[in-house]
Amino acid sequence: MLLISLIVLGAILRAAALGVGSGHLAEDRDDYLAVAKQYVARGFWLRFEGIPNSFRPPLYPLVLAAILKAGGGSAALGLLQLTLGMATVALTCHIGQKLGLGSLSAIAGGLVALDPLLIEYTTFPMTETLFTFLVVLLVAVATPESDGRTGQAAESSSVANQKGSQGISRWPTAFRAAVVGAVFGACALCRPTIWPVAGLAALWLLQRLHRTHGRLRELLLPGAAAALAVAIVVSPWMLRNWKILGSPIVTTTHGGYTLLLGNNREFFHQVAARPLMAEWRDSQPDRFQRPWFRDLVAEMDRQLGPAAGEIAQDRWMYRRAGQEIAAEPRLFLRACVLRFVEFWNVVPLPPSRSAVSSFVIWGLCIGYSIELALFVAGLGTLFRRWDDRWMLPLLLILNFTLVHLFYWSNMRMRAPIVPLIALVAARAIAAWRDRRKVNKYVDFPPASAKT
């Protein structure tokens, strides 16, 4: 009943946001609607007209294209994103049960249902809602079932054993590994920034294999099944890029621009070199970007020629970002610190917050500060009493934090890991509950323990 209430609460808040901001669904800030219309008009395998072919990852625009092809519009998109938001709440609670949180899984679900970032971006044709759902689905299918001691039994077990780590879960079957690989492939087609997680997970699994004195062949079959599933899901995008652009790209031609956007001389001197608090007070922090980008494109055209393809442009921007970083290493480090702070920020920066009342801003600040404090406390409980089942959520959180130390960053980039942050925060409350149970057990042991 509580789960249903949380899902309904999440649906009501998202429906209200869609009602107030219904016009946002037609705002094509990141050109996903433009790409979707090209897919409708040209198909998946033909070159686009007038826009880059692989600047945006394909999954979300293909979803939009399916809606447009079926005759749907903003209302259908809003309904889809509302449904995905509800599913994200439900999956968060489900993961909490698998991770042994018991009844406190509802806290994580409630934080997701109430999260302002997830509610706000339900109203935009952007990847946040779909990608967050896919990330949570990935964790749900990758996390093994609890050992059977759920609810009160799991809580009692936690009280009885406060030292050491939880038992190590079994290696996944080839089928479950393939499902995990397929969902990971879908995540990568929605936002390529998830790709490094595959390497982090491989290193973790090898370390775990060594720690448990296992044999490498135990990992080979599930690992091969997962890799094959990823390849099957991603290969159409790779083959399309090979056919159209002449290169088997599995990410996008957007990476160089995103890296250079936060690592250029203008950004270093106009933003990173200033005192940190100046960024919070500046009503136009991005005023330098438009003239900078205009001059950048002019220079790129002079060096590459105006007819250069998007792959050549992407590589040129990667090289240019490397040159700018090498020229200003101290300011690059300051920019990394700034990006870290903005990723984990608790209030929106200007001009985004200009349309929001100060009462709401302070509410956001207090709410996110409490959640992040619980998140840090939850990390502490995990390091004191390790549980292998938490490794993937932590790797995902680490991945996005590290990626956005270098690439463009703001609070919006944190949206996909909001459910994982909520789960770790709930873990802190669970640990506090368990300590109380331990103290009560010591002070008032049951009669069976006395005998």
Write up this protein.
- The chain is mainly α and 451 residues long.
- The chain has two domains: 2-151 and 168-251 and 344-450, no CATH class; 252-343, no CATH class.
- The protein contains 21 helices and no strands.
- It has helices at residues 2-20, 32-42, 59-69, 74-98, 105-114, 116-120, 128-142, 151-160, 174-190, 196-211, 216-245, 255-261, 265-272, 276-281, 289-304, 310-327, 329-343, 358-384, 391-406, 418-443, 447-450.
- Helix 1 (2-20) packs parallel to helix 5, helix 13 crosses helix 17 (329-343) and helix 18 (358-384) packs across helix 20.
- The model is unreliable at 148-165 (pLDDT under 50).
Brief characterization of the structure:
This protein is an all-alpha fold and 451 residues long.
List the SSEs and their pairings.
Blueprint: H1 2-20, H2 32-42, H3 59-69, H4 74-98, H5 105-114, H6 116-120, H7 128-142, H8 151-160, H9 174-190, H10 196-211, H11 216-245, H12 255-261, H13 265-272, H14 276-281, H15 289-304, H16 310-327, H17 329-343, H18 358-384, H19 391-406, H20 418-443, H21 447-450
